[in-house]
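Collaborator request, handled under Task 6.
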Amino acid sequence: MSNSVALGSILAHHARQNPGRVAIVADGLAVRYDDLDARANRRARVLASQGVGQGDFVTVALPNGLDFYETVFALWKLGATPNIVAARLARPEMEAILDIVRPRLFIGEQPWPGIPSFSAEEGALAQASAEALPEVVAPHWKAMTSGGSTGRPKVIVDAMPSRWDPQEGFLGQRPGDVILNPGPLYHNAPFHCITMGLFVGATIVEMGRFDALRALELIEAHGVTWVTMVPTMMHRIWQLGPEVHARHALPSLRMMLHMAAPCPAWLKEAWIGWLGGERVWEYYGTTEGIGSTMISGSDWLAHRGSVGRVREGYELKILDDAGQERPVGEVGEVYFRPRGGPGSTYHYLGSAAKRIDEWETPGDLGSVDADGYLYLSDRRNDLIISGGANIYPAEVEAAIEAHPGVRTSAVIGLPDEEWGARVHAIVQPLEGVALDEAELRAFVDGRLTRYKQPRSIEFTVEPLRDEAGKVRRAALRDARLKDRAPAAKT
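Structure tokens returned to the collaborator:
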């Protein structure tokens, strides 16, 4: 990045380039780039007085809002690396993360006595100088936390130092865009995309908490040009109904990019029909940055079900358990190799990478066609083997969630004496909808072959997916194994 700017100076850069440009609309305020820079300078000085300096990890447990944005830019001004976690975590999970990271400071509501914590007081911030600080660069611009498929936390430390070219838009972003953030910033996809938007001088419209109708209203009110969503959000917007969709053509929106979880084909096709294939995009990648793919809606219609071809700078292979490359169209484990080789994009704290030579896997199963388009099947850890047949939970969930009365679902494998494992579906209906099991089974019967259909179904009012659209099937499975009823037979 020959034209890169230190992230601690990038707000001031955009303030000089576009005086008066709004950086963030949040908490009822429109904050310009120069104001956000001044706020971050004050906060950086207060953090420095607490001992934070270049190369330190600092755990940030703040909700979406101005305090969050000010804090991460303040840390970059000091050359520190933000380790982003949810504002409220169960103590065992938080303890495990802090034990791994050993941060210089914890920013947020103090989880328990004895943790060196910082809670910004307005008085201290107001007294601190807003003048620019000496420029320093963090060795790692972020350290995101992941529960992983097993639920054991790991920290993914990005190899990129805290510098960026302010003209280089990430995933189709452009300098001067207006970007809506509907997602929780403690997840990598929103954090990465939204901060990258600020790096190129975009205006961020921060929702705080997702609401389907409000998202459409904000896109139109602010002239939003770029947004990233997860399929859960897309589903909730689609359930607003055709009358609402007809009122909101979203003319300003250039790109809706979905990621982070599988998107049912029917839902994606519905969005393409609404917005057009040139505006609906999909991204598949990893927090580790080892590889990624991307596909437009128009291209998807010609390669239905694909997540695209590998992006420039990466290579892709499908390998079997012995490390041999699978033939075209055959399912195996997805492996990537970044241009810089293994370990060039990140390193773990609290975990180890799974590699074969220079190739590394995110743990997903998939296949490629003759044109190099990748088709995902599921997570290897979530694969259900029933009666010797491989069943991918995501495929079963997509069939269930096509039902108009279903909000979401999670499919897991439970032990079965006869089959080895049986397909068990946990279904969350829409609020106020009384789903009939027999009717749901008849609906799914027309969409799945017999052996893939759930052998048992339970209904729940509890959310199954988090705000990023992810479901921890291992935790759901473990909870049901603790007090398991005898396996059902058909």
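The cover message to the collaborator said: "The chain is about 30% helix and 25% strand. The chain has two domains: 5-368, 383-482. Please let us know whether this matches your experimental observations."
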